[in-house]
Amino acid sequence: MWVATVLHRPVVPVPLFFTSHLSPKVLLKPKTFRFGFLLPSLKLKASATKKQLQTQEPDNEDLHNQEKSDDQIFDLGWLPTFPHVLVASMSNFLFGCHIGVMNGPIVSIARELGFEGDPILEGLVVSIFIAGAFIGSLSCGSLVDKLGCRRTFQIDTIPLILGAIVSAQAHSLNEILLGRFLVGLGIGVNTVLVPIYISEVAPTKYRGSLGTLSHIGTCLGIIFSLCLGIPAEHDPHWWRTMFYIASMPGFLLALGMQFTVESPRWLCRVGDMKDAQTIIRNLWGDSEVDKAIEEFQSIISNDGTDVNSRWMQLLEEPHSRVAFIGGVLFVLQQFAGINGVLYFSSLIFQDVGIASGALASLFVGLTNFAGALCASYLMDTQGRRRLLIGSYLGMAVSMFLIVFAINYPLEEDFSHNLSILGTLMYIFTFAIGAGPVTGLIIPELSSSNTRGKIMSFSFSVHWVCNFLVGLLFLDLVEIFGVASVYAGFGSVSVLSAIFAYYFLVETKGRSLEEIEMSLNSNMRGGGR
Asked: Which has the closest alpha carbon to 398: 421, 369, 377?
């Protein structure tokens, strides 16, 4: 296990016979310890021994706190798990990459394949991706239950790779639709699979920070695709090269998963205790093996040994409550307006003189990435619940700031700059909480037996809401105006913060088994 540990010897009072030969002049001058603490002067009287112990005790306590702080600074307990989570997060990199690859050169694709100027067909090419993602999300839960995470990851790379290659070689509308559908199918599976894998593999102490890698991967994928799309402004056929390049991370993901570990929780459920113990020992440490296995077995004895859960279990308590929370969280996330804000961000940047859509998107992508980095630090220090509430409140303030800039008579340049500030604030605060926390907290609240099904249901709701927002957004803007729609987004953000306050429990620092047993006991207690 790659853990940097610092062993410190306890500091004890110096026995009197060690000081009997010291000069009185030396004894009168306090000595400085290696960490900068002052040691009290040592007396030669035996009667002072008890008092000496009492006076040195606070110093020893301060020293212990200092040493503990030093240990935390150099805490690398997350490092053994990091490579495995990093490989899994490559799936989100693929997700972000395919978002940018499609949105950038859609005009060139439409012109070359013969449907330029037809908004319905252009919308179909984009939305067929969401249809595939919806089906992929629904199917992922059953696949994970039967095959485990590693094998599901590797099988899922097949539609991702094939879809990108078919899209690159498309010479008709039907071919590009098939390619985009296959890619959507693979992305739908991965969006469900990655949070499950990270939550089950990561040590409890670092689960939140490691969980944000999925959101960071999406941000990096979007930024990469934006940079990749720069030549498309001058080369109308560059989109084919972009799709070929987008297929390469799929090969890397399939290869990388060959060297990652399986979820130890899934291995216990299928009866492979030996491999589960080995993985826990290598990733979490020897001291965690017995406790973890005991918790796993306790949950298995309560839920049963059947690996394949049933969809009807989502109607039973406490699973129905978690499924309800997961579905509502994604409804609120989507109707808080992230996709609408991203759509209008390029127009807002144009108002301040940034005419390049790619450059505007790059600003947005970098802001999103910065927020995700902050979330990786705050997730395990502030907690999921507090972070989500703060994120939605920040999003609400940002939306109302833009509404103020639009509705009130301000100097034009000041109004535009205020809109830019509100847009970047919104994206930053979304990336801190609403983006990464939503996908992370649902598998943490879910039971071991129904985690795959609950995640499938929740992300299926996500894709439906994603489609509806994209379908209705422009019509709502045309009817009510941008300010009214943004005010609606701000109101939904406030509602989301209220929902998180009343319905979510904190999961920071608690193992998945502790959370599950707590929820089960609460339900039994509520039933009496």
From this structure: 421
Q: What is the pLDDT of residue 106?
A: 78
Residue 342 tokens, joined: 């991203």
How far apart CA 275 and CA 387 sit, in angstroms, is 35
Paired tokens of 202 = 């990561």
Dihedral angle sign, alpha carbons of residues 512, 515, 517, 520? negative
Q: Give residue 307's pLDDT.
A: 64
Residue with tokens 């035996």: 46
- Please identify which residue in the block is written with the tokens 């379908």: 471
Question: What pLDDT is recorded for position 103?
Answer: 67
Predicted local confidence at residue 306, as pLDDT: 59
In angstroms, how far is CA 353 from the centroid of its own chain? 34
Q: Which architecture characterizes domain 313-527 according to CATH?
A: Up-down Bundle (1.20)
Distance CA 169, CA 167 (A): 5
* Residue-level pLDDT at 207: 96
Q: Specify the 3-state DSSP secondary structure of 167.
A: helix
Domain ranges of the chain: 76-285, 313-527
- Whose tokens are 């490092």? That residue is 79
Separation CA 193–CA 183 (nearest Å): 15
Contact criterion met (CB below 8 Å) for 239 and 107:
no
Q: Which residues of the chain have pLDDT under 70?
A: 1-74, 103-104, 303-307, 346-347, 350-358, 522-528
Residues 6+ apart with CB under 8 A from 361: 100, 222, 226, 345, 346
Tokens of 223: 């930024």
- For 179, half-sphere exposure in the C-beta direction (CA atoms, 13 angstrom radius) is 24
Give the residues across from 39 on adjacent strands: 31
> What kind of architecture, by CATH, is found in domain 76-285?
Up-down Bundle (1.20)
Q: Find how far residue 109's CA is from the centre of its chain.
A: 32
Domains 76-285 and 313-527 alike in fold: yes
pTM: 0.83
